[in-house]
Structures are given as C-alpha cells and as structure tokens.
Amino acid sequence: MSDSRIAKATVDEFEHADRATNSAAVPQVSLRALRKTFGAVTAVDGIDLDIADGEFFAMLGPSGSGKTTVLRMIAGFEQPTSGSVFLGGVDATTLPPFRRDVNTVFQDYALFPHMTVAQNVEYGLLVHRVPRAERARRVGEALDMVRLGEHGRRKPTQLSGGQRQRVALARALVNRPRVLLLDEPLGALDLKLREQMQLELKAIQREVGITFLFVTHDQDEALTLCDRLAVFNNGRIEQVGRAEEVYENPATQFVAGFVGSSNVISGAAARAIVGRDGAFAVRPEKIAVAPSGSATAPGSLTVAGVVQDVVYAGSTTRIVVAGPEGLILTATVLNAHSPDGGVVRRGDPIGLTWHESAMRSITV
Amino acid sequence: MRLPAGLRRSLVVFMVIGLAILYLPLLLIVLNSFNSSRTFGFPPSGLTLEWWQKAAGSSGALAALGTSVFAGLFATGIALILGTMAAFAVQRYRFFGRSTISFLVVLPITLPGIVTGIALNATFTSVLGPFGVGLGIATVIIGHATFCIVIVFNNVQARLRRMGTALEEASADLGATGWQTFWRVTIPGVRGALIAGALLAFALSFDEIVVTTFTAGPQVQTLPLWIFGNLFRPNQAPVVNVVAAVLTIVAIVPVWLAQRLSGDSVSSRI
Question: Which of B143, B141, B75, B150 has its CA nearest to residue B114?
C-alpha cells in the first residue's frame, strides 16, 4: 500500500470518529482562570485560553514561564490550585489522566523500554481493550504514518533519536485523541533533523486533523509550525494570536524581544527620534542603511549613529549602531548582493531609516 | 587514570593478599571435604569422595537442608511482597512520616542479630506464647523476613527512584488505570531489582544463624544450626566440611546472579 493511500484511510477514520460534542463552536481545550502554585512559587498565574478544533497551537515561552505546567494540567498530571480545564466543552479539571481524551508526546519520549516499537504503539489500544485484529491494523497504520512500518519488532534502544520521536508520535496518535499534547517534541534532536521533523509534524497534523497543542521555548519552531500561539512569561500569557500577527504586532516588550528580536525605543530616545513619549518596537530587518546625506523619505524616520559592530551571519549581516540618548539599534541587512552588508566598518558614521508603519507601539 | 608503575605493582600485591585471606580458608574447606584424613592434616594425605557420600546419606543434614530451603523461600516470598509495597509507598507517594517509615524498614539490617533474636524470642515466648504461638519454622521465617525485607526494599526503592515517574505518566496518559500501569509498566521496570533482591534475600536467609538460634525452638534445625551442632563431634567433622562446601556454593550462585542481573553494585546495598 502506498503512503498516500494509508494517509487517506487514516484521515477517513478520524473524520468518521464519533465526535458528538465536537461542533466547531466548542473549543477542544478551554482554560479558565487556571492557577498552579508549588509551595511559595506561582508557576501558572491565571490563564484563560481557548483552542479550537483542528488547530496547531503553540505555547511559547522561556523555561520557567509555566507553559509545561499548563500542558501537564491539561494532560492531568498536575491538579490546578484553582481554575478549570475543559476538554471538548466538558469540565475535566478533576479527571485522572487515563480518563482524559488527550495523549502526550513527551520531551524524552518516555517509550517503554521493555516493549518493542509495535508493543509501545499498541499499548493505548491494549489498555482500552480494543479487539486484537483491530489493534494490529491500527498499529500498522500508525507505524506506516510515521514511516516506521519496518521497525515494529525493534526495541526503542535500537532506534535513533528521530525514530524514537516518531514512535512516540505514533503511540500518542493511535488512540485518536481529541487533542495531542507535545512537550518540547523536537528539543532532543539536532538542527537538521529538527527541521525535517517540523515539516513531518505539520504534514501529519494536516493528515489526521487532530488538534495539536505543543510547548516550546524555540520561537523559530513555534512560528514555523503553529497556526496560533500564546506567548508565556512568568506564569501569564502575554499575547495570543496567529504567528504573523504576534510577530508583526508584538503587544508587549517581552513579546517583541522573545518572538524574534526587536529594537525597543523608549524614554528620552523615543522623544528624540519618534517625537513623543512611549515605547516602540522595530524589527531589525525593517531597518535599512540610509546613504549618508540622503533626505528622509516622507513617512520614514532616520537616526544618525556610529557603527559599533558588524556581525556576518551567512545570509544576513547584523549592523549594531549606537544612536542618540544611549540607544543601541540593530539592523539586519540581507546579503543578496554584497557579502558584508555594504562596506560598513566599525566606527563609521551611519544613518538608519525605517518606515513609520514598521514601528509598533508596545507596553513595557 | 594512569598510576606510577611501582604503586600499581604494590596495589596488585595488596589485592592478591586481601583476596587470598578472604578465599583461601573457603578453598581449604572445599579441599578438606575431599581429604581422606579424618584430622585434616595439610597437605591432604589422599583424596576421597567418602565424606560426600556420607553427607548425601546423612538424614540430619538433608532434613536441615530442606528446612533451610523452605524457610528461605518463604521468608523471601514475604520480603518480596512487603518490601515491594513499602518501596512503592515510599517512592511514589508523599505522606506524613514517609522518611521515618523508610528508616524503620531499613533499621533491622543494622541491628545486631543477637538483639533482633532476643527481642523476637521474648515476643514469641512470653507475649504470644499464651495465645498458642510456639517457636518453630513459622517463627524462623518471620525472623528471617525482618532482614530479607530490607534487601528487597532497598533494591526496589533504588530502581524506582532511577526509573522516575515518566513511564508511569506515559502509561496513564495512554489510558491505563493505576492497576494496569502497575502490572504492565512498573513491575517490568523493577523486575531486575526484584530478582536480584530475592536472590540476595534467599542467600542471607540460607546462612543465617544468630536470629535463627533464638527463633527456631528445639524441633527446627536449619542447615547452619545443624553445622554448628555437629562441628565439634569428631565423627561428623568430615561431613560438616562437605555441608559447608555446599553452603558456600549455594550462597555464591545467587549473589553472582544478582550482581549480573541488577547491573550495578548490588553488594553495596546489602
């Protein structure tokens, strides 16, 4: 059987699965005023979030921002201190993990070492007392979906990191959960494999149509994979939105700095450059080097400064400039024509310019 | 690490001396079990299988062997159940007095055997005696179980700690109830520790004499008790050598197996 036909069969099954409570209006996951404290430490500090059916949703934040604790409360491994978890519109706050229609791909995969790959994948069906013939069929489909059809009889220790990751994915998807939770799913893989798995994850998510909710600290990964994302900081959500929305319109200084990098202009520098009080963010790639002496285009801002550093990074070059009022600006220049962003040297006077529309007012 | 040649040579010498002191006497026992001289002159005046044949025909020794195996198996069984349950409770649940419980379970192994023996003897004879409990094989088993539990507990607890809870969480996440998780994931995870603990517990029970002396009563004779009773009877001395040789081998095999199975230093946890 070809890969595409398997994929088709899998999709059909998922579509035919009975999802009475699963109308488009009811979010698959709803968090209401969710809080979790560990002793004196508040890990999650009042989270409200709705994740729609079929979404690929990312919870992005630095370590310790509470995103993993939220995931564990959705899976049922942690009990919230207060607040509620709804799954498919039903209050699941106090349900134990095995009564929840969600499955998890763990960061370290947590494959059962004493079972073969096929037994690992079969486990969820076995404990749900699915008949033997159907178990065998669904395990085969799940392994084919992650391109491990030939490896069913191996032990997890005989697989590479990327293969183990795919076993964990097949094991979690074979139950056809309402929501798939992924905890830093690609964190243990090297860069090339990670990029390949990102594409695979996205393709599999499209195939099966299940809601994917994943936790990551890697903003590139979040932007690449997700439809929408929530940016976590200190146990709270700073911003929720579609990837390009959050990137283009960061709501806070934290988001501006964490999702991609940003130049933040505030205080005296804001008054000097923008002409009013407030805090403003400009992405480095939206700043251009202005030929010295050229007039400022209408609707644009120009800053004169001194080049502090020129960092060559392959496809781009970062130019760090010391501006007025102690402001440090970074401009990213594409190395499309010149190898080093033009002939810029440390200590050169330089002009930077960007269009006002590229600048966002943010809260600090 | 690279050691100076002189130091290395002297360390090798020390190690050989140390091992010789440990194992040459045991070798002598085995050798004497084949020694044709009744007085065990060294070197042996000749080799014979006579004592082994005598031992094989000695009803006292065989009965004692049977008693020891029976008591060892029973004490190990009790230790497996209670030790595993205690280890599971201490490693997987948080409750008031958790570390105290852990300490109290391990304590019997450090108590002098003679104290445990006297205490159990007093309890069995003066407290439980009036209720019809007499010293016998059952009290020996209970006495042995007190330290066998420690071995199983320590092995299983260490394994549970190293396993962590990730696999159990994964199992629950996939829909397994607590019971299913216990049998399908936790027990297979600690299987090696269970086997190693059981083998060591049996080996300890098999050659225990101090607690046994105080809990056996007049009717029950384990193999070590039989050896002790026959050691100074000149007629029996050659047979005692045979039994001691057997005992050595029976004790070595489980420990060797346990070391191989558990993969990490079992002996450090006794």
Answer: B143
Which residues, at least 6 apart from A307, have a Cβ–Cβ distance to it below 8 Å? Answer: A319, A320, A321, A344, A345, A346, A347, A348, A349, A350
Residue A296, pLDDT > 80, answer no
Are the CB atoms for B86 and B248 separated by under 8 Å?
A: no
Determine if the peptide bond prior to B43 is cis (ω within 30°): yes
A200 SS3 class: helix
Question: Is the CB of A98 less than 8 angstroms away from the CB of B173?
Answer: yes
- Domain map (residue ranges) of chain B: 59-269
The distance between the two most distant Cα atoms of chain B, rounded to a whole number of Å, is 72
Whole-prediction pTM value? 0.76
Q: How far apart are CA B58 and CA B55, in angstroms?
A: 5
Asked if residue A267 and residue A231 are part of one domain, the reply reads no
In the DSSP assignment, the letter for residue A287 is -
A192, A221, A252 — which closes off a domain? Answer: A252
Domain that holds residue A341: 261-362
Band the pLDDT of B94: cuts 50, 70, 90. Answer: confident
Fold of B59-269: MetI-like fold (1.10.3720)
Instruction: Say if residue A168 is in the same domain as residue A233.
Output: yes
Q: Smallest CA–CA separation between B45 and chain A, in Å?
A: 56
Q: What is the pLDDT of residues B197-249, one digit of tens each?
A: 999 899 889 888 999 999 988 888 898 898 888 888 877 778 888 888 888 88
A87 inside 8 A of chain B by CB:
no
**Contact partners, residue A60, CB within 8 Å, separation at least 6:** A67, A216, A217, A218, A219, A222, A229, A230, A231, A232, A258, A259
Contacts of B175 in chain A (CB under 8 A): 98, 124, 127-128, 175
Count: domains in chain A:
2
Q: What would the pLDDT profile of B103-152 be if each residue is shown by its tens digit? A: 888 888 888 889 989 999 988 888 887 777 778 898 999 999 999 999 99
> What is the CATH classification number for the domain harbouring A150?
3.40.50.300
Chain B: residue whose CA lies nearest to A108: B166
User: Do residues A179 and A328 share a domain?
Assistant: no
Which residues in chain A have their CB less than 8 angstroms from residue B172's CB? 76-77, 96-98
- Chain B CB within 8 Å of residue A185 CB: no
Inter-chain residue contact A98 with B177, CB threshold 8 Å: yes
Q: Which two tokens stand for residue A294?
A: 């050229």
**Minimum CA–CA partner of B175 in chain A:** A98
Tell me: do A240 and A317 sit in the same domain. no
